[in-house]
Each structure stands twice: as C-alpha cells, then as structure tokens.
Structure prediction request, 146 residues.
Amino acid sequence: MMAFRLVARPTTIVGGLVAPGVEPGPESSASDLVTFLRERIREREPAGTDIWTVYLPDQRGVSNAVVGVPRSEVEDVPVGDVFITVPAGAFAVFEASMTLPDRTEDAWSQVEEAVADGGVTRAGGPEFECLAADGNVEIFVSVLLR
Prediction:
C-alpha cells in the first residue's frame, strides 16, 4: 500500500561529503561508499542528528549525492565539506510501510510505485533521504503539482 504526503519545503543548505555518480534509489543508499560517508557524518555530529543523503542531478542528468546535515548558513559548514542548496519547492514524502525488511528499500519502493501509477510526477530536482538516529527514514521527492 503506497502512501505519501505533500509538503512545501523552504530552501535548505546541506553541508557534507560527496558521493559522485550515484542515482537516487535503494542500491545507492545501501552502497559501501554512501554507508561509509553516513558513518563519518554520524561520528562527528551530536547524537540524534538526522543525516540527509541529497541526490542532485547535474546538467547532463548524472546525479551526485551529498551525505550530510542541514545547516543554518554556509558559515556553519565544516571546513573541507561541500555544501549544496536544496531549493524550496513541493515534495512528496514517503515512509517505510514495513512490507520489506529494509526501511530505506521499502520507502524507495513506495516512490517507484507512486511514479509508476502516476500518483507522483517527478520534477527532476533534488531528492533526498532523511535518516533519523532511530533508523526511521523519509524520502523527499521534488514533484510537479497538477
């Protein structure tokens, strides 16, 4: 059963580490590189911090991911990290329904089902996973409103 909610999000600065050439989805999310980067971010941030994995397509349509945390302003981004600006917009938010044992894979399957049945039209903008310290995951997909 696919369920999602629509939200309007403000512009958000995310600072973190880069995983180049990764497409949004469960395979990239579970990859050794993205998992490693999440562990590095988790080690240096306060306990309970949500870790974001932002998939940002470039002009050629290739996505790169920034694994990090939202920051109030650019000056808050640690030296050596990159930062991206996730533009304000409309997002469909998906959560795991627990039909699959892996929460992230479950939530991405909800995204694919919603896109396939026409319930969601991707806007081609950034998509991101928000992984809470307790293991819950939400996936935000930029959408076109009809």
Observations:
- The radius of gyration is 14 Å.
